[in-house]
From TrEMBL:
Top EC group: lyase
Catalytic activity from the UniProt record: 7,8-dihydroneopterin 3'-triphosphate + H2O = 6-carboxy-5,6,7,8-tetrahydropterin + triphosphate + acetaldehyde + 2 H(+)
Required cofactor(s): Zn(2+)
Alphabetically ordered keywords of this record: Lyase, Metal-binding, Zinc
Pathway membership, UniProt: Purine metabolism; 7-cyano-7-deazaguanine biosynthesis
Enzyme Commission number(s) of this protein: 4.1.2.50
Domain of life according to the entry: Bacteria
Organism, as annotated: Polaribacter glomeratus
InterPro entries in the cross-refs: 6-PTP_synth/QueD (IPR007115), 6-PTP_synth/QueD_sf (IPR038418)
Pfam families in alphabetical order: PTPS
A single MF term (Gene Ontology): 6-carboxytetrahydropterin synthase activity
Protein name as it appears in the record: 6-carboxy-5,6,7,8-tetrahydropterin synthase
Family of the protein in this entry: Belongs to the PTPS family. QueD subfamily.
Amino acid sequence: MPKVTVHRKAHFNSAHRLYRKDWSDEKNFEVFNKCSNPNFHGHNYELIVSLTGAIDKETGYVYDLGILSSLIKLHIEENFDHKNLNIEVEEFKNLNPTAENISVVIYDKLRKHIPNHLELEITLYETPRNFVTYSG
Ligand SMILES: Nc1nc2c(c(=O)[nH]1)N=C([C@H](O)[C@H](O)COP(=O)(O)OP(=O)(O)OP(=O)(O)O)CN2
Ligand SMILES: [Zn+2]
């Protein structure tokens, strides 16, 4: 049975600040540099959600990309788009919103809505040149 991967792209624009509350501004600047600016900065995040599995004999689908698009809109875009991640998104109130941590949060939010037999991979571009992947 061949396994095929389907991908859906999405995007959201968010502000964030990389820092630790228990460090001084100086120490945060030493480690996170300009990304620790106390006044925040923003990114146009590009997200790719990938599902791998067998092709369903009846539908010819691995998974309906229309349903995947709706899941991403409901669970990711509505929570993250045009938000300050540190202040407005519960998951990052005590978690540094690095691309690594954001991709794990996205994975955890989507995993529970995706059938168990499908593998899920998150690819998150923070800038056109900085991106991370996470697959659980
Ligand atoms: N491992 C990680 N490193 C960095 C992260 C991250 O999430 N994980 N994030 C940042 C900052 O958010 C920063 O804002 C990224 O912007 P920048 O350094 O300007 O990235 P560019 O790709 O635009 O930079 P160029 O060097 O001009 O290509 C930093 N590191
Ligand atoms: Zn940043």
